[in-house]
């Protein structure tokens, strides 16, 4: 289901460990003994091979790092902005850019030193050039200590990101902290999100799955959002903002009408108005939660008016429902309404899209029209009519010939039916051969 699987990225060693890996592999995979009696061409080839192999090993390792990490410009905008929120886009690109630069430097060092070894005039000169080449390559790797350490921490965190598909059917829950989002998710999915009586228990995005109408639905629990300017929101809150901004989903905005969450209904309505632009082109449902502690019917008229005004401001597409996670009253209804609204919206978007027009252009419907006013009866040839009159063709559909079929006790034996007896069945050539003397005596 997931579009991006960040768990497949390989571990990134520290700079010192990477140097040990490269030098150990060079020592194991290349010849280790050279004698002064060798010809100078053989000595040069020996040390050139060492330099070239070291450069190839470093290049392979750094290329694997650059390939494993996603390019922020190529992945879904949701993941791109989520990486920017969690890891800082500039720092991320700078670290990968330094690794790419290090790979280019190692290649240029190897190219220059191989050119010098090619004209080395003695064993000592070639050996010194080889040591200088490997030393310069290792120095380049040592300078990438900070970048490698940062990328390893990013890899560890990315491997723990939820397996989220941005393009599938999604139900997203948002609201102030401690209003019942995680409890609702635990009710309708198989997820087990931690629920505590204090704010910001949920610090990251959690994904669960539920079934409705034989379809798999993705349910996302977001951290709580506080009502303050966008610039003042922290990393935890920005994850919820990123999900709201980029995912095409059915949004459940939870309102705690009992005010046990620590925020008044006025504050919850104020947050709704501040993030309302993020609800554009989404199926919005306002959920009044915790009706077991404070029933909607007994809520004060002033607070009722605030909630109803908030729903009316959202437009006709907004739906208002009440529920309680404790008594489970209205939980199934909220889930069903959210799924139905999103299904209807997805069908409507496909019908109004360009794909339907492309299919309609390839469909042709023909309506045959009469070419004149004459009525043409079914034509039966004269020969067929004569056979029907003579009784050769029977009009009774139930009286069908059983020729070629095994007889049953209900079948009436007619003259037209030919029941093949065992003695009338045609013998095979094999049976006739054995009756007339066996192989080599009789031939057909």
How is this structure best described in words?
By secondary structure, the chain is an alpha/beta fold. The protein is built from 14 helices and 6 strands. It has a 6-stranded mixed β-sheet with strand order 2-3-1-4-5-6, sandwiched between helices. The model is unreliable at 416-422 (pLDDT under 50).
Q: Which residues form runs of ≥5 with pLDDT under 50?
A: 416-422
The string of secondary-structure elements, in order, is HHHHHHEHEEHEHEHEHHHH
* Biggest sheet descriptor: 6 strands, mixed
Distance between the termini: 67 Å
- Proportion of strand residues: 5-15%
- Quickly give the structural class: alpha/beta
The helix tally amounts to: 14
For the secondary structure, the number of strands is: 6
Helix content: 40-55%
Mean pLDDT: 85
- Name the strands of the widest sheet in spatial order: 2-3-1-4-5-6
Radius of gyration: 40 Å
Shape, please?
A: flat
User: What is the subunit arrangement here?
Assistant: single chain
Keywords:
444 residues; flat; 14 helices; alpha/beta; six-stranded mixed β-sheet; 47% helix
Element layout with pairings:
Blueprint: H1 15-29, H2 40-68, H3 77-87, H4 89-117, H5 123-142, H6 145-159, E1 170-174, H7 181-188, E2 206-212, E3 215-221, H8 235-246, E4 250-256, H9 265-275, E5 283-289, H10 301-314, E6 319-322, H11 331-352, H12 354-362, H13 382-389, H14 429-435
Parallel strand pairs: 1-3, 1-4, 4-5, 5-6
Antiparallel strand pairs: 2-3
Helix pairs in contact: 1-2, 2-4, 2-5, 3-4, 3-8, 4-5, 4-6, 9-10
